[in-house]
């Protein structure tokens, strides 16, 4: 059975919830097989799949394309799909329209959007349309230019008070979960204690109700920059690189394919083919 909002909210203050990103069918299947509770089809696909510098170029069509594949692969995990930049910022109507399209075309269980007080009206309208919402506060990558880069949020008294107000606003608007990104652990703990919504941390300490990571980061899929908050559970980049190099060598030396990797052919037929 697929996990529901009520299954997840029942874990509040108890067993933490696990969440990973996925952007394709096979990865979603494997994550689902591992028993991960939630899958996020993040607009981080702009960076890790499409090769963009940031998430701003990702479109609703991109999210739907990848979201469909993930939803086909995940049978038990609760699937959340990001609303990309400018899919909800322009107006409440635009937000509801795009959230509805994402849910209808992908068969996901919820959408996620960035922002606190400023976008609470979007969250409220989307929830009233019957679409579950995960909010996202703290470091909001879609606002990277306004924030002046990827920086920890909530370190000053003013910033911390703003995050508390943001958490309260998105909860009041109906968000059942709140992603806290790059927030000091003590502040994330305080927010978690003050809200009935699930808090899902990414660089926000272990006292959140759950954790999320980009799967390429935690698997060491690339050899590029790795955020401080990431724990690497594997080094796939090295494994894949060595395999590709060995394949190249085998091709050049004609040691691949071996006889066991080829199909038999009748000698009699061959003789007839080459008869003068």
Explain what the structure shows:
By secondary structure, the protein is of the alpha/beta class. It has twelve helices and eight strands. It has an eight-stranded parallel barrel with strand order 1-2-3-4-5-6-7-8, surrounded by six helices. Helix 5 (92-106) links the parallel strand 3 (78-82) and strand 4 (110-114). The longest helix has 17 residues, at 157-173. It is elongated. The model has no long low-confidence stretch (mean pLDDT 96).
In summary, what is this structure?
The chain is an alpha/beta fold.
* Residue windows where pLDDT falls under 50 for at least 5 positions: none
Q: Within the largest sheet, what's the order of strands?
A: 1-2-3-4-5-6-7-8
The percent range for strand residues is 5-15%
Largest pleated sheet: 8 strands, parallel, barrel
For the termini, the CA-CA separation is 66 Å
**Shape by Cα distribution:** elongated
How is the secondary structure organized here?
Elements: H1 5-9, E1 17-21, H2 25-33, E2 38-41, H3 45-48, H4 60-73, E3 78-82, H5 92-106, E4 110-114, H6 120-128, E5 133-138, H7 144-147, H8 157-173, E6 177-181, H9 185-194, E7 198-202, E8 210-213, H10 215-218, H11 236-252, H12 267-273
Parallel strand pairs: 1-2, 1-8, 2-3, 3-4, 4-5, 5-6, 6-7, 7-8
């Amino acid at each position: 059975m697929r996990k529901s909002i009520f299954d997840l909210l029942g874990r509040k203050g108890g067993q933490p919830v696990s969440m990973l990103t996925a952007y394709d069918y096979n990865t979603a299947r494997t994550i689902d097989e591992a028993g991960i509770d939630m899958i996020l089809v993040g607009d981080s696909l702009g960076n890790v799949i499409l090769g963009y510098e940031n998430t701003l170029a990702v479109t609703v069509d991109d999210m739907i394309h990848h979201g469909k594949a993930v939803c086909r692969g995940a049978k038990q995990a609760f699937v959340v799909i990001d609303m990309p930049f400018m899919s909800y910022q322009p107006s409440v109507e635009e937000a509801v329209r795009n959230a509805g399209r994402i849910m209808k075309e992908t068969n996901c269980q919820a959408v996620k959007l960035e922002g606190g007080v400023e976008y609470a009206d979007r969250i409220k309208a989307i929830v009233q349309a019957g679409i579950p919402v995960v909010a996202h506060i703290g470091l909001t990558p879609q606002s990277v230019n306004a924030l002046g880069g990827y920086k920890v949020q909530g370190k000053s008294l003013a910033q911390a008070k703003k995050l508390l107000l943001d958490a309260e606003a998105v909860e009041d608007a109906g968000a059942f979960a709140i992603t806290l990104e790059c927030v000091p652990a003590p502040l994330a703990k305080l927010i978690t204690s003050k809200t009935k919504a699930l808090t899902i941390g990414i660089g926000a300490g272990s006292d959140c109700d759950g954790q999320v990571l980009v799967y390429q980061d935690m698997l060491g899929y690339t050899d590029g920059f790795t955020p401080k908050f990431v724990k690497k559970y594997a080094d796939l980049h090295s494994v894949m690189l060595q395999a590709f190099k060995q394949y190249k060598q085998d091709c050049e030396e004609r040691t691949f394919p071996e006889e066991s990797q080829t199909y038999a052919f009748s000698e009699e037929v061959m003789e007839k083919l080459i008869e003068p």
